[in-house]
Amino acid sequence: MSRSALVKPASGSAWSLLPGLLLCVAVGVAAALLGLLEARLFGRAWLEPLVIAILLGMLLANSWGVPRSLQPGIRFGAKTVLDIAVALLGATLSIAALETLGAVAVLMIAAMVFVALAGGFLLGRMFGLNRRLAMLISAGNAICGNSAIAAVAPIIGADEEEIAAAISLTALLGVVTVLLLPIAVYVFSLPLPRYALLSGLTVYAVPQVIAAAAPFGTATVTLATFVKLARVLMLGPLTLLLSLLAPHFADPEKAQSYKARPRLFLPWFILAFLALAVCRWTGLIGPALAQPLGLASNWLAVVAMAGLGFGVRLKSLSEVGPRVAGATILVNAMMACLALGMLALL
């Protein structure tokens, strides 16, 4: 199945979308069940259902192929369902992270995030990655992992293989970071508040921040989570910035279509994300509603990852894999160095 078959807009009636969409849902359910099994066997899910869904979709597509009749629904799952998941994510952002940390710490975190974005992008380009893949890896590691990659990808025109490479390898390295980071408490004799800051500044996803901080108590988990959420809040400014820079990420044959658009091009789901974030910050969306919206966002993202997995060719992924892995490792190392420098300043 060619990549172009999955990136063109879905067409036809709603009924034509149903078979492929149900396949994505079935793969998503299987990924969620495997995640639960992982947690039961090993105490936690080291590979998140999001990553498992991509891997299952890739396995099915590359082993048995996908009938043409299923492709419209798969495209819908990979694009529209993902857009909805990103939009709903806005309802989960809390301004409490900013209020708890204080203005100086928040400004330093914001500065670190954007330095990490620029540095990570340059490292990716040094490894020979195209601009889109370099930015996906940089955003995923600097801000909030899968959610940042999913939000950024449509703005810069990333395809399924680029998204899958960024998410899979970033997630794998995130697991390694969670395993190794607690050693820093003993190697550097870090007080627990400083370790909480370090884990919140370096680990790429909120659940993994909690996992990294959990061995050192509830207070460490709380502080680390607040720091991480402050990083997540940088997703809004980043999407606005990338909307202005979108033409620079497009392939040459697509650049003209970007130039024909208004200068500030924001996809509907980013506008919805920002609107829901404002509603959450102002109290129009309370915790009782934010929690189910967050769960819905996570579940829809798993379904969308299955759709993305169906669009990945293993041959193409193997060609870029070592370079993506090298860039991701260096971006993580850079994040750790920036975090240690910030701790020294604080």
What does this structure look like?
The chain is mainly α. The chain has one domain (16-345). 79% of the residues lie in helices and 0% in strands. Helix 6 runs antiparallel to helix 7. It is globular. The termini are far apart. 47% of the residues are buried. The model is unreliable at 1-12 and 258-264 (pLDDT under 50).
- The dominant shape is globular
First-last Cα distance:
53 Å
Order of helices and strands: HHHHHHHHHHHHHHHHHH
Number of helices: 18
Radius of gyration: 19 Å
Largest sheet, in brief, is: none
Short précis:
The chain is mostly helical and 346 residues long. It is built from 18 helices and no strands.
What is this structure's SSE topology?
Blueprint (H helix, E strand, L loop, with lengths): L3 H4 L6 H29 L6 H15 L7 H19 L6 H6 L1 H24 L4 H14 L1 H11 L3 H21 L2 H5 L4 H11 L3 H8 L4 H15 L2 H11 L6 H8 L8 H15 L4 H24 L3 H32 L1
Helix pairs in contact: 2-3, 2-4, 2-17, 3-17, 4-8, 4-16, 4-17, 6-7, 6-18, 7-8, 7-9, 7-18, 8-9, 8-14, 9-12, 9-17, 9-18, 11-12, 11-13, 11-18, 12-13
